[in-house]
Amino acid sequence: MDFIKINPADNVVVALKEIEGVPAGHKKAHVTIKKGEPIIKYGNPIGYATEDIAEGEWIHTHNLKTGLGEILEYNYTPNFKALESKEPSTFKGYVREDGKVGIRNEIWILPTVGCVNDIAKMVQKEAQIYVKDQIDAISYFAHPYGCSQLGDDHLNTQKVLTGLAKHPNAAGVLVMGLGCENNTIEQFKEMLGEYDEKRVKFIICQEEADEVGASLEKIKELIEYAKTFKREDIPSSKLIVGLKCGGSDGLSGITANPLVGAFSDRLISEGGSTILTEVPEMFGAEMLLMDRCVTREVFDQTVELINNFKNYFIRYNQEIYENPSPGNKKGGISTLEDKSLGCTQKGGTAPVVSVLKYGEMVHTQGLNLLQSPGNDLVAATALATSGAHIVLFTTGRGTPFGCPVPTVKISTNTDLYTRKRNWIDFNAGRLVEGMDMQEATDEFYDYLMKLASGEIKTKTEQNDIRDIAIFKDGVTL
């Protein structure tokens, strides 16, 4: 098979390899399309022809433009079907004292301010001798913030750091402050709320003669506490999984994203939860999500989510639809509608049950939408902060980054999987090579249950790649 027609209503087909002058992942006209007529892909318009296009002609940015406007009016026209409930499967996880469930038994070092990043790095390096037995990892999360911030930026830093401090994948947390930063230990504790002193410990570097030695002593205490936890059978209904894509190509909406969507539906049918973010990459497909909102209240929150992000662009005099990226375009994605209709497939078909603000924890079982930009590191960090045990990351071009939780890289094409096995965990490219979606979903689901049980680790875990990035939108003092 050289070309694939995704939806019967489409007037384009997508090349599965470079053929007839059409690069792999790109579109060609399936019929003659007149200037001004819509280009249909995924059964929906992805833009309009800027000139007459003959049948068989390559379609891309040179003869296709977006049809999207600015702020839109939306009507609530619910059109969804609840998923059929299924008996949860089980994985081996850790039940914390507060009742939350973790899939890793790790020690995390959280700097309150960027000034102590390298101290945290020194502590983490010396503490590696303790990574054994029940301790899966000792990690630190560097960031440049925590001081010289105002308003929402300061609050966002606190939300992310305290959210990570509460994450159940961390059996123990060392919060490391400098002593003179804006994000003081006192503020951190106030934002954190009630906490277990056996699980969360604090150090202020300016108050210690030997901050590294003092930190290591606290790490040892945390390790002894972490050793009290053992893996036990946990129902899949306790899992929360984040959904993300990056470095997308023309096969993203055909292979990897639909696979993740199928997994999302299966997990939700078993009582679990997933989180879909990248709000600017919902533009052009937002009405498909709005029609799946379970209540008028959730619909109104989704409208607010979309319009607030559009106003964010407008406030800075930026084009709302300045997307896709150069890499996306090279891979065959021509307009934001093209990108968004493929991107949102990661959310499967489940109803939308909740809209989360940046830094807000999941509180409703099902498919949740989360306020966050499309930037890979910022969005993945936001997913972890909201409680995702795992982040699923689909990619057509590849990326090595990892976030605080296991970050599963899913290739949209077999070539990427073959070339970058040190980055990629699962190959969805087989879906255009004869593999059945049900077979792929079953295999992927089994892989993720083994991952959650600690039987296997992601490439990011194996390579010890863990990044955080915090959303910034204001003045730096």
CATH classification, class level of the largest domain: Alpha Beta
Distance between the termini: 58 Å
**What overall form do the CA principal axes indicate?**
globular
Under the CATH scheme, the architecture of the largest domain is: 3-Layer(aba) Sandwich
CATH fold-type name of the largest domain: Rossmann fold
The SS-based structural class is alpha/beta
Let me know the average pLDDT. Answer: 96
Number of helices: 13
Radius of gyration: 23 Å
Number of strands: 21
Low-confidence stretches: none
Strand order of the largest sheet: 17-18-16-15-19-20-21
Number of domains: 3
The largest sheet is:
7 strands, parallel
What is the share of helical residues? 25-40%
Strand content: 15-25%
Q: What would you note in describing this structure?
A:
The structure is a single chain. The chain is an alpha/beta fold and about 475 residues long. It folds into 3 domains: about 5-65, Archaeosine Trna-guanine Transglycosylase, Chain: A, domain 4 (Roll), CATH 2.30.130.110; about 105-230, 3-Layer(aba) Sandwich (Rossmann fold); about 235-460, 3-Layer(aba) Sandwich (Rossmann fold), CATH 3.40.50. Helices cover about 30% and strands about 20% of the residues. It contains 13 helices and 21 strands. The protein has a 7-stranded parallel sheet, sandwiched between helices. It is globular, with a radius of gyration of 23 Å.
Question: Which structural traits does this protein have?
Answer:
3 domains; single chain; globular; 21 strands; 477 residues; Rossmann fold; Archaeosine Trna-guanine Transglycosylase, Chain: A, domain 4; 19% strand; seven-stranded parallel sheet
